[in-house]
Amino acid sequence: MAIMLRKSLLFPLVFALALAPPSHGVNTSSLAPTSNAIQYHGGPLLTTPKTINIYLIWYGASSGKDRASITDFFASLSRSNGVAPHQEPTAATWWKSLQTYTDKAGNSIPCIVRLVKQIGDIYSLGKNIKRAQIANYVKNKIETRALPLDSNGIYLVLTARDVTVERFCMGSCGFHSSVTVSTRSRVVYAHVGNPSVQCPGLCAWPFSLPAYGPPGPALVAPNGVGADGVVINIATVLAGAATNPFNTGYFQGDPLAPLEAVTACPGIFGEGAYPGYPGNLMVDKISKASYNVYGANGRKFLLPAIWDLKSLKCKVTF
């Protein structure tokens, strides 16, 4: 078995690249955007066919409420079910911002993201998991045909709040990597943990008080602190996996600790963001929840800024 590219993404409030390989650590914090532009390094992206298929593994016991919020987020990435015509921007337009990222043949990141299959697992690996186990776990699910082999898919493992994954909350809130299956194909996989209990101040900011950095009030989460923390981190991981799946795509800096499409814009969610302040956001009049995009089935989400290849700035309006 060959494991290719190990990228970790630490998403809230302290910016650091001091994590040793083979895991490449990036922390998305409330800091100014990076000064150097992301560059294309000539490698393949997840561009063909014109759809990115998501294979979702719910590991551990998750609430039905959280699952509904997260599956609605996936539904929101390529369509706007339940979104009124006047409700803009949407999660779908956020994802379409990645279409400026093209490969050597000029193919862009697909505008269609489909949640193709979901499976559950009640702690078959226990509640304390090493990162290498996740690679083997995904590989096994494909080789035993629990999930299909899809070279343009992303196999996403979401762990429950009571599951500890190596370096989760210490080195990352999630990561994406790749693994060779049956010596025939590399597939992209990813992990995101539920931060609601273990580290909300790190992995669910700005919906929880910051663990480090400038103080500031926690915002009201539209779908719950845990679910919205997971959504922010899923968005970051998916953007990185699509535009830099094998560590030869779009990134800035050291390839062992790359800044990618979203992690190049740490802690920025709206105009006027600065350390400890996520930026100007929309606020629901009734719930007082903060958000910046509309989603499927009447959902509202807070999604991170994306590095814009044209303006060479962090894009917060979609």
Describe how the helices and strands are arranged:
Blueprint: E1 3-9, E2 39-40, E3 52-59, H1 64-76, H2 91-96, E4 113-121, E5 128-129, H3 131-143, E6 153-159, E7 164-165, E8 174-181, E9 185-193, H4 200-203, H5 225-243, E10 250-251, E11 282-283, E12 290-291, E13 293-294, E14 300-301, E15 306-308, E16 313-315
Parallel strand pairs: 3-4, 3-6, 5-7, 6-9
Antiparallel strand pairs: 1-8, 2-10, 8-9, 11-12, 13-14, 15-16
Gist?
The chain is α/β, with parallel strands linked by helices and 318 residues long.
Structure description:
The model is unreliable at 1-35 (pLDDT under 50). The termini are far apart. The protein is 17% helix and 22% strand. The chain has one domain (3-315). Strands 1-8-9-6-3-4 form a six-stranded mixed sheet, with helices on both faces. By secondary structure, it is α/β, with parallel strands linked by helices. The longest helix has 19 residues, at 225-243.
Number of domains: 1
Low-confidence stretches: 1-35
Largest sheet: 6 strands, mixed
What structural class should be given to the helix and strand makeup? alpha/beta
Spatial strand order of the main sheet: 1-8-9-6-3-4
- Overall shape: globular
| Portion in helices | 10-25%
Structural Rg: 18 Å
Strand content: 15-25%
Average pLDDT rating: 87
Question: How many helical elements?
Answer: 5
Count all strands and give the number.
16
What separation lies between the terminal Cα atoms?
40 Å
N to C succession of SSEs: EEEHHEEHEEEEHHEEEEEEE
